[in-house]
Amino acid sequence: MNDEGPARGRIALKRGRVKPLAMHHPWVYADAVATVNGSPAAGDLVDVHDPIGRFIGRGYFSPKSKIPVKVFSWKKDETIDAAFWHERLRQAVEMRTGLLGRDDAFGAVRLVNAEGDGTPGLIVDRYGAYLVVEFLTGGMARRADMLVEILAKLTGCAGILERPEAELSRMEDMSRTEAVLRGTEPPDLVEIVEGPAKFLIDLRRGQKTGFYLDQRDNRLRTAELARGRRVLDAFCYTGAFSVHAALAGAKSVLAVDSSEGSIEIARRNAELNGSAVEFARGNAFERLRMLQLEGQRFDMVILDPPKLARNRPGVMKAMAAYKDANLSALKLLDAGGILVTCCCSGLVSEQEFLRAVNDAAVDAGRSVAVVERRGASGDHPYALACPETDYLQCLIARVAG
Both 326 and 305 in a single domain? Predict the structure, then answer.
């Protein structure tokens, strides 16, 4: 698919629902659609118009989604073809290698970040010589061959692996399976370098695309503060925060996770770096409470739980869980200790997360001063017009009293 030709459908918006799109917010919600003309099929190119027929933008059609169009072009005369996508992807790759200097052949980086790179529905992560791609919309999935060919030419990678997300595939009515789309199959574990540390990444079974790349800068900053401290890393996954803390000179590191597979790779990562980390398998919420009962104390607690709110009805439950974890962490910290607490639930606003942490501080009878408010690493840019894509929150706070 090199030249798509004209749009195959026309979406008219309801009155009162135009302003966000006119301000370049890329999402057209289903309840904002007045009419669909031209009978476009899933994945077809469609134009979005206001109620009186003025062109707003262009995107791919996802009729069964709550967001049936994600706009990526705002120019009526712009041709959407292979050359268009080559330029979008070239700019994304160049930003990482040029502006951010993330061109280490043994490093890991997010090369393409969906809306943040003007490519809604496409995520690409590089782990050393291999790329992992996620097609999040039917429109992008239909153009997989073209996109993969462009990515291979731009990066010279050894292989490209697709990691479909089951829930999104269902919502987008896609039938995608894990597959090597280009080049050679990656090994069971790929070794990458992040700052002073090395990590083994399971590209097929690991969470997300194998590693939490968005926490890279937060891990390195946390490590700077860990020297000489007794560190607890709850929800440690494959041990990245723990290994960095140990390498930076932490007095001791205890890492907790509920997944046996994650703990096994975390142990191997600690061994790979010659770092002293003690691992404990178990539910992190329960283990935090158990450590209190045992009278354990720490100088730094790191909380990096997985996404706790996957839909709007789940936000209240997630808020209670964030408060619970932070309450336990604050009870474990000595005066002058550091709390590093994170939220990757995009549906939980910054103010809601701050309120959960403050509620925990009040109940714990602790005084908490936020030293830094951080987000995702620079290779995860978000669209200014689409603040929903700024999902990761990381607070570094000093705890007194």
Answer: yes
For 277, the token pair is 């980390």
Active-site hit among 343, 344, 386, 394: 344
Report the greatest alpha carbon distance in the chain: 68
pLDDT digits (tens, 9 = 90+) for 31-65: 999 999 999 999 999 999 999 999 999 999 999 99
Following CA atoms 390, 392, 396, 399 in sequence, which dihedral angle do they give, to the nearest 10 degrees?
A: 110
Displacement of CA 96 from its chain's centroid (Å): 16
Q: Do the beta carbons of residue 252 and residue 300 sit within 8 Å? A: no
Domain span including residue 158: 82-186
Annotated catalytic, 157?
no
Of 26, 49, 73, the residue that ends a domain is: 73
β-strands 9-13, 278-281: how paired?
unpaired
Determine, yes or no, domain membership for 293: yes
Nearest to 338 by CA among 303, 376, 296, 293: 303
Cα distance between residue 25 and residue 333, in whole Å: 42
Provide the residue type at 356 as one letter.
Answer: A
Closest C-alpha to 322, from 223, 235, 209, 207 = 235
Listed in sequence order, the DSSP H helices in 69-209 are 82-94, 138-142, 144-155, 166-171
Terminal-residue alpha carbon distance, the chain? 63
Instruction: Identify the CA nearest to 211 among candidates 304, 274, 121.
Output: 304
Inter-CA distances, 208 with 149, 277, 306, 392, Å: 23, 24, 10, 14
* Residue 118, both tokens: 């003007």
How confident is residue 104, by pLDDT bands cut at 50, 70 and 90?
Answer: confident
Instruction: Say if residue 354's pLDDT is above 70.
Output: yes
Answer whether residue 195 is part of any domain: no
In the numeric block, which tokens belong to residue 371?
A: 């030293």
Strand partners for 159: 130, 183
Give pLDDT tens digits for 362-396: 999 999 999 999 999 999 999 999 999 999 999 99
Average pLDDT over residues 1-16: 86
Cβ distance 259 to 229 under 8 Å? no
The identity of residue 269, as a single letter, is N
